[in-house]
User: What shape does this take?
Amino acid sequence: MGTGAEGVRGTGAGAPGLPGGGGLRERKKRRTHRALSDAAIALFLRKGFDGVSVAEIAEAAEVSKPTLFRYFPAKEDLVLHRFADHEDEAARVVTGRPPGISPLDALHRHFLDGLERSDPVTGLNDHPDVLAFHRLLYGTPSLVARLYAYQGRSEEALAGALGGGVADRLAAGQIVAVLRILAEENWRRIAAGESADAVRPGAAKAARLAFDQLREGIGGLRKP
Assistant: This one.
């Protein structure tokens, strides 16, 4: 992220908020989104989220406050924008899976591929910019609250891709929770000082355990 955001850009799920393609107007819109978010995150990393005003961000980005709010309705969106195209990622993996592959197998493979690529969304990335961004994100209560709202929309999209019924909604809730917990565990270990390469084998093993548990259910947790 150059400013601390580049590390979460172009991660499949973390880059910049608007779908790819489109005409000149859409490309300009995407560039403006990126420029505004870059300017904001640079300030947040330097002064803290609560230490930066919207007016200060607008001034740094050389736009008016009304223009800033047209692109980002809330200050938190300037950060969570990095995750915007991850919102329906699990749903896209399910709907785009090859014939003969179950939704869980497709999601498991996708997560393992993300670990191999050190996709920041898996939590397995020790680049200094990514670490700084994660500290900003998880160290700011209002951003954490907004992140949970994002995960709720991800869950809703996945439930729709699975079929939309009650069973599908229950499954989507469990899957999104598993992906979140796996990523948080990877991030916790890296934040404690381990390298991504050192964490990767254990992360893959944890993912296998998690998806096996999803396949088998949690009946094994029933103990006398």
Residues 1-20 have pLDDT under 50 and may be disordered. The radius of gyration is 18 Å.
